[in-house]
What we know:
By secondary structure, the protein is mainly α. It is 55% helix and 11% strand.
Amino acid sequence: MDCSPTVSESNQSLTGIPCSFTGIVEEIVRFSGLTREAAENCVWMEALQLGWNVANDVKRFGATPHRFDEHMRGLYRDGDSFIFETLVFWARPFRQKWTVHALDRLILHARACGISLSKLRVLILGDGAGNDSLFLAQNGLTHISFLNSE
């Protein structure tokens, strides 16, 4: 099931981005190698308590929140908690509206500058599962995503 935000200047839908329980689980199973049962449990727990998976990975990797060290590096490199957090959080209607609102603002900016939307370039930092990047690209923007893997 695709997500479809409500009113916006852009009047665009979120095509192909998983927003239902089943869609998120299928996406995670397809790309992570986790079993369906494990993915369902993690998605469900994340929906009930945002950050549940990250809290478990913090314990699993012995990481200290807000301290970047080898334990935290292991959590980012080998953990899977952030995929659950970003996909589940992004599927919430109010979060999708943020992205639609950003697109609306970009449309207004392009108009004010007298250029087409396709000429704007957008730098996206920390896009998690990439849903914001996908949505903006589907709506004609050229974007650059930045990921610092080290």
